[in-house]
Amino acid sequence: MGENFSKFTINRAKVGKNDVKFDVKYCGICHSDVHVVCNDFARSMYPIVPGHELVGVVTEVGANVNKVGVGSLVAVGCTIDCCMDCDMCEAGEENYCRKGGDTHTYNAKKTHGHIGGNPETQTFGGYSKTEVVHERFIIKLPENTPLAKAAPLVCAGITMWDPLRHWGATKGDKKMKIGIVGIGGLGTMGIKLAAALGHEVVAISRSNKKENIAKEKGAQHYIDTSNTDSINKHNDSLDLILNTISAPHSIFTYLGLLRTNGTLVQLGAVGVPMDFMNFAIIPQRKSIAGSLVGGLKSLQECVDFCVEKEIYPDIEIIDASKVDEVYISLAEGNSSGVRYVLDIEASL
Amino acid sequence: MAEVRGSMYPIVPGHELVGTVVEVGEKVARVKVGDNVGVGCVRDSCLNCEVCDSGEECYCLNGFTHTYNTPKTKENCHIGGNPDVQNWGGYSEFDVVHERFIIKIPDGMPLEKAGPILCAGITMWSPLNHWGATNSDKKLNIGIIGIGGLGTMGIKLAAALGHRVVAISSSDKKRDIAKSKGAEGYVVSRDPASVAAERGKLDVILNTVSAHHPLESYISLLKTNGTLIQLGCIAKPMQYTQMQLCLRRISIAGSLIGGIPATQEVIDFCFKNEVYPDIQVVEAGELERVYTELQENNSGAIRYVLDIKKSLEANK
Q: How far apart are CA A332 and CA A158, in angstroms?
């Protein structure tokens, strides 16, 4: 990374009839913010104002807005626009919008036409004082929601919630045995959610170092994949595995842990091709799948569940003066499992 | 077979048996002497696990017993005879099988065409069933990669089920045969324009190719939430990219033949809809030639069928 963060002025759009304007109180820092800032995906449009984990208080609403009013507590996650017209958008899976994909909260072109302001500029995210979005992309927060802790729910929370939901773990009709690979910020969030949903949770890591924290967060079992006995205890037994590892890795062990019809859901942004053997998935009809955040319906569900059950990520609040330091630490690998949250008011 | 699992010689191959019942045990209720029956790839399973109970014996948690070249299990074995001798397959005059693994062949179904349905047919039917294509009132877009014996069977089944079938091959050579079997669309995987024409349109793809190949262009053909189903025996690792799966919630799955109820279902479906494999009947004296041909080139649509009676007569 060459440059540091610096203060930058942006103009938010005037509030249109379907829009909600809010003061951003906190914005969570996501590992993918680091990737975008460093242009790791090769499509960064500078200047970048990152941040896709916004929470705050509504200050103005457009004439058609019903969802919230001035003073409401709200959140915005990774999606701030979509076509609103395809079957995926209609099903509330806007993150899989068929017409060019959804519009990301920052570093994205405004292609779907429901974002105000200058149509030529890229979207600017939540490391900022205010935000204006179409009502559809607003998440309602109950009155007593602890705002700073709630911020990462709209990214880390939904990243783990949505595959649990898609693969049948949020319906409450069946106890599943669910593996969570990678016991960092995403992984610990996944353990908490799966345990709170009543499932048998198996935390999976490369050493024994994360056993205490995994069990503390609600995992009943722990697999140290450097130890074959540890793996063999749970072979052929997991219904679903959520794999948060975002560096190149082998999935062979995880496929072996799946039972008949089981699915390994890959969540990490890995830039190189991954290997698998047909022989690992054919005999017991196993699947390897990918998943990426979630739609607005799923997001509201996730936030409601977490606020009701008081499931929050472990956070550390910082102000803007610490952002560079935090980015460097995340780029080097965040092994503490803590999600950093930017205190916007304190930073201004 | 030796390439896939260790072979126990001598081997009597054959897992697509059809014939007529000559004797039944006293507890047998499903068939009687004179009925036409078939046995496919599953000769036995534990019949004592939740997967067997759900009628998916091929995924038996204790491992199903393949019709030939397998030992008889020590526990939960439903096969008679010498317990220490491996199982012999269908290139033979008789077989004795537990009733559970018998498929009834409807009266009037041409026996010589039923055999390959018990293997190629179920291999394509079972994933179509599991991924919602056999009970759907929606017209789906189904891709079939590899236009050989399995692939053409899959095209016929998917088309007979009312779906739009897109045949996918590495060249244009199979276009005519694919269309003649019922494919509406055809993609040449090495031609970017051909791939682009069907990009993002397919609900599910059945991949029958059994040689190593890249998957990226096939995955691009899938709709959001779509599944690429891998069927081929491939000894080398396959590759995928994480982003291709994550950005549109794509799955890559495996599938293996199918359980007994599904096998009965595909036989009944084929009879009712007159969906049959393209076959060539041969006798035992031609086996060497046929095996050599299949080893050199297993991409033809023809399924060979051994005429047991004629083979025995010729041998007298």
A: 24
Q: Is A290 on the interface with B (CB under 8 A)?
A: yes
**Average pLDDT rounded to a whole number, residues A268-281:** 94
Q: Contact at 8 Å (CB) between B207 and B232?
A: yes
Q: Is B248 on the interface with A (CB under 8 A)?
A: yes
Q: Chain A contact for B279, CB < 8 A?
A: no
pLDDT tens string A280-321? 999 999 999 999 999 999 999 999 999 999 999 999 999 999
Chain A interface includes B224 (CB < 8 A): yes
Distance CA B128, CA B98 (A): 27
The pLDDT, as a whole number, for residue A335 is 64
**Order of strands, edge to edge, in the sheet holding A200-205?**
A221-224, A200-205, A177-181, A238-243, A258-266, A287-290, B251-254, B222-230, B202-207, B141-145, B164-169, B185-188
**Hey, how many other C-beta atoms are within 10 angstroms of the C-beta on A309?**
12
Closest by Cβ to B240, choosing from A96, A263, A274: A274
Please give the radius of gyration of chain A, using alpha carbons only, rounded to the nearest integer. Answer: 20
Interface test with A, best of B70, B242, B255 (most A CBs within 10 A): B242
Which residue has 């920052």 as its token pair? A106
Candidates B225, B230, B242; nearest CB to A278: B230
Does B2 have pLDDT greater than 50?
Answer: no
DSSP element (H, E) containing B209: none
Look up residue A338 and give its DSSP letter. P
- What is the model's pLDDT at position B3? 46
Contact predicate B91/B35, CB 8 Å = no
Chain B residues in contact with A282 by the CB 8 A cut-off are 230-231, 254-256
Segment A224-238 shows an average pLDDT of 96
Cβ-contact A293, A78 below 8 angstroms: yes
Over chain B, what is the mean pLDDT? 95
